[in-house]
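Researcher: I'm preparing a figure for a lab meeting and need a structural model of a single chain. I don't have an experimental structure, so a prediction will have to do for now. The sequence is pasted below. Please return the structure as tokens so I can convert it later.
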Amino acid sequence: MSYKVFALKWRPKNFDEIVGQDHVVGTLKNAIQKNRLANAYLFAGPRGIGKTSTARILAKSLNCKDGPTVSPCQKCASCLDITNSRSLDVIEIDGASNRGIDEIRVLRENVKFPPSIGKYKIYIIDEVHMLTTEAFNALLKTLEEPPEFVKFIFATTHPNKVLPTILSRCQRLDFRRIPVVEIIAQLEKIISAENIKIDKDVLFAIARSSDGALRDAESLLDQLSSFAEGKISLDDINSILGVVEHDALFQITDHIIRKDPKATLELFNKIIDEGKDINLFLSNLIEHFRNLMIAKITKADSKLIDLPQELCEKLLQQSQNFTLEEIFGVFNTLVNAQEMGKRLESARIPLEISLIKLAHDKRAANTTPAPVEKKAEHKDKTGPKPGSETKNNLEPVHEEKHEDKKESSGGSVENIREGWHNIVERISKIKMHVATYLNEGNLVSLEHNTLTISFPKNCSLHKESLDKKENKEIVEKIISETCAVSPRVNFVLSKEELRRDDAQSSPLLKSALDAFGARIIREII
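Model: Understood. Here is the structure written out token by token.
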């Protein structure tokens, strides 16, 4: 007997064997039991999730000798012919290769002939969105008023490409991607029946790489059973797919938590040296932080994370080391690396920079308030909440030296300027756009406990954004914690405009250009 691949051998034969599509199965069963079958059905959804298999099972249910029934006997001539794809009453058409008007005209001519054995003549058209507009139009009349013994079942991965006139004549059923847990359960049935020795972690890796497509998971398991000698291990699937196992994602995140850039870089290099795809690794790492976010919010709800419960618990434990704001910051950093990687010949450089940045930032120093002198605390009671940020590497600004200014502020503008780099750095971890806007400002004076920061008159957007209560509080708070003074901040516009050469010398812009070896193509001021 010839070998049969798993995707065909384990194809569902009845409604109860369909995996992950309970809503579709329930609808079709009710329609059969209540004799409320539509003239045409449209099965829509991603590849490999059971659309064509469901269409065959529906055809079998209608043409079984006991049918219409929700439980076809699988033994009569009609059931056997449909199972073996040789039924004269169930015509399967590939919409990609039979997409023209001539093929549809032939179909229209054959529709009028009754079925040879079964009760219905059933047309299953796969990838129906590939039909031409002319072919769709030729099908309209037949589709709307077919003979009583004819049923149409269309399958497509792109329902948006099907003409509205066709959609309006069909009952649409949307198929869903199959959850990882359900794919693993089906794979366990297969390995048990096929006597395959395999690590449990491998099943998870297969299910995760299939992206919700059971057919892909079954095909990969089939490939592994031929590739591996003896028991299938995680190394076998890693060598075939180049996937990054979850342990590596947890480890590199632990290095980021411990602020160990050397260990982070070494682990990343090891992953790449093993032949893993850099873009796939980056996508997996972004997904890992997404899972950390969901675990933190939902307390490890496995339904929302779509991972085994033990991994969800591990995610919950690791997520306790981050605030939501810090997770959002990691997202931004990794997505920026992903976008920059598309523009460079090497995706490795932006990702290495991002990983080192994430592991190098002294988060504890940025979030733990510095002690504030009692004198400053007392004076802060009369003013708004502290918090704000400004521009680094500023040119010296003339300031009149009056004793009453220093007494009222607890310091001088020079003291704030000296700590300005740390202030900007800390604010960038809270709100990057606040730090970016402040980088265009200039420290003017510290007078009567008010720090004045000016912006060119064509940067009014910066001033308006920073004047918002929540942003101003951030700036004042960080200044207070960093410099042991608690001034109010006042943002003003100067009479000068920001020049093109000034824009290019912006410290933030310059650091970004240096980090990625980039150059300015066009400036918008």
